[in-house]
Amino acid sequence: MAKPSTDTESIARNKRARHDYEILETYEAGLVLQGTEVKSLRNGKANLADAYGIVKDGELWLLNLHIAPYEKGTAWNHDPTRTRKLLLHASEIRRLIGAVERKGLTIIPLELHFRRGRAKVVIAVGRGKKLHDKRADLKERDAKRDLERVMRSGR
Fold first, then answer.
1. pTM value?
2. Is 54 exposed, middle or buried (0-12, 13-18, 19+ CB in 10 A)?
């Protein structure tokens, strides 16, 4: 499980993930990146909105993570949406493979950040929400907001 720490520098967040998916477990994974990708990430040029994870040949891969080309890059600049390998412990990979292949769950990236100078991505195993689940969450959030407003004004 990913544990938040004070030495992280956030780059990008997937705001729609918690709205579209029921999050069951989270993990922090390393990313295999090229040099210009790291420089672009340091400038905060990343988008997780369409990204998702897949299992191929016993390894985890992150697809559609958009890292903008580095402005000062040359002809050897990276492809913005290339497939990137995720680095996890073998036991975590086995657990994720089981969840994806047997239970039909999805791997969703939640946040991209630097931890001690290394690029990390917080991935989650989730199940897609149906429309009625999303509506129920909105009603629950509105009720909670109203309750907090009443509690605040009652003091």
1. 0.78
2. middle
